[in-house]
Amino acid sequence: MTRINQLVGWAVITGISIGAISSARLRAAEPETVMVTLHAKPGAEADLARVLDRHWETAKRLNLVLPATHVTLRGIENETKTYFVEIFTWRDAEIPDHAPAEIQAIWKEMNALVESRGGKPGLTFTEVAIVGRGDGQKP
Predict the structure, then answer these.
(1) What is the reported pTM?
(2) Which residues have C-beta within 8 Å of that of residue 7, sequence separation ≥ 6?
(3) pLDDT higher than 70, residue 22
(4) How confident is the model over 48-72, as pLDDT tens digits?
(5) What is 31-128's CATH topology?
(6) How would you class 93 by CB atoms within 10 Å of its CB: exposed for 0-12, middle for 13-18, buried for 19 or more?
């Protein structure tokens, strides 16, 4: 009987462990699309554009993002102030909260190149959902 009890105990523990691992993988696999708005400091526009490019390339290299959902936009507000909007999808919604040091260092550079405007911080992240694509395909 002792051997049977050990086997049953082992089976229960293994089942619980597998369930926890599977549950964590399912939760961790939830992508998150974000829209990042960055208000460039005057004179820092070109540097900020370069840092944004490096951020994207680094995030791709580290497999943190889904490459198909990326766009960077540049605009002018109040006729003189440059801002950027970047839209992309984190491979896992948990990544921003646990970003690698390499990404955090780039975020620090970004923050040094932006300014607050109109009561809003220089850099804002907004979770968004892709509703449609210009090519007629569903997101």
Answers:
(1) 0.75
(2) none
(3) no
(4) 999 999 999 999 999 999 998 899 9
(5) Alpha-Beta Plaits (3.30.70)
(6) middle
